[in-house]
Specification:
8 helices; 2 domains; globular; 18% strand; 11 strands; Yope Regulator, Chain: A; alpha+beta; six-stranded mixed beta sheet
Length: 327
């Protein structure tokens, strides 16, 4: 009697072969993942910022699928009453993008004003091999799940541009704490409140600034002895780098007195120039410098002439101060 074939039985769980197969599948998923996970969306730069370095913020996502009506605002004073449901059967939930959710999960759904509120998180654990696919799955689930259902991950055949209006911008709310994790009026026990207080203590003062050109996403943050401006750019990296070199050679790589160009980093396939700023000045006090630099940068990016020797030296120096954030 011949030996029983082992073909098709697959690797035994915990075996070296099983580990190699799992590692190969992970590498294949990473290879299939887009270099710019949020490309094609007008909100790309803000989504990158919210995933890479903004601590506590949310924004309503402009989904293509028709959703429930917004509740009528009857008072400027907030209240905890969700009011009557305006959500017909079969109509999707409101969906918000969030920096991070409790437990770093991918999505949650809860009762909201007139309709269920879904939240899709960007900073999740474990780190997904394909950011775009994981976020699309979370958004799709958050749009259709019932209140307090548990998100266990998953897949969708829809891309982000199938779900989200490509030209839609985000109206972002930045918070000083994580109280928005829970619906208004929720009674929290002492342990949960202490956890929220500890988490809030790690948040740095942060503000999203708006340049006159509307290009990119500049984010100001006060980090103790220093403040920083991180400007997520949507353009090709070489275009931005060449423009920065032109500005450096011309003495225009600055936001004005009290600022210093600190370098740049790559993340999620885009470039993020960084400035160190005088910590005694608030974000609103940097608008003159921001708008002047914005105008210089737009002009420099439109210049297609060859770089001069001095500008090439500037570009080489800028590149030496560039790092890549692994995501």
């Amino acid at each position: 009697m011949g030996k029983k074939s082992k073909r098709g039985t697959g690797p035994r769980p915990g075996s070296n072969r099983a580990e190699r197969v799992a590692a190969r599948k992970e590498r294949q998923a990473e290879a299939a993942a887009p270099r710019r996970p949020f490309a094609g969306l007008a909100a790309e730069c803000d989504l990158v910022a919210m995933r890479a370095f903004v601590a506590s913020a949310t924004a309503r996502l402009p989904l293509l699928e028709k959703g429930p009506p917004e509740p009528e605002l009857k008072s400027v004073v907030p209240d905890d009453d969700p009011g009557p449901s305006l959500q017909a059967e079969g109509v999707r939930n409101h969906v918000n993008v969030a920096t991070v959710l409790p437990g770093a999960v991918g999505a949650i759904v809860r009762d909201g004003k007139g309709a269920r509120e879904g939240f899709a998180g960007l900073q999740i654990d474990p780190e997904p091999a394909n950011i775009a696919a994981e976020f699309a799955a979370a958004v799709d689930w958050a749009a259709h799940a019932k209140t307090d259902e548990e998100y266990k991950g998953g897949t969708t055949d829809k891309s982000l541009t199938d779900l989200i209006e490509a030209s839609g911008a985000l109206d972002i709310t930045v918070y000083e704490d994580f109280s928005w994790w829970y619906a208004p009026g929720t009674k929290l026990d002492a342990g949960v409140q202490q956890m929220l207080d500890r988490a809030a203590a790690t948040i740095l003062p942060t503000a999203r600034m708006t340049p006159k050109s509307g290009l990119g996403a500049p984010w100001w943050v006060a980090a103790g002895e220093k403040a920083h401006l991180r400007w997520v750019r949507p353009e090709d990296e070489d275009v931005v780098m060449t423009a920065l070199a032109r500005l450096h050679a011309a003495g225009h790589l600055t936001l004005g007195e009290g600022s210093r160009f600190a370098g740049s980093f790559r993340t999620h396939g885009v470039l993020v120039p960084v400035f160190d700023l005088d910590p005694d000045k608030h974000a609103d006090e940097w608008y003159d410098g921001l708008d002047q630099f914005d105008a210089w940068l737009v002009e420099a990016m439109a210049d297609t002439s060859e770089l001069t020797t001095e500008q090439r030296r500037s570009r080489a120096g800028i590149r030496t101060r560039q790092v890549t954030l692994r995501v």
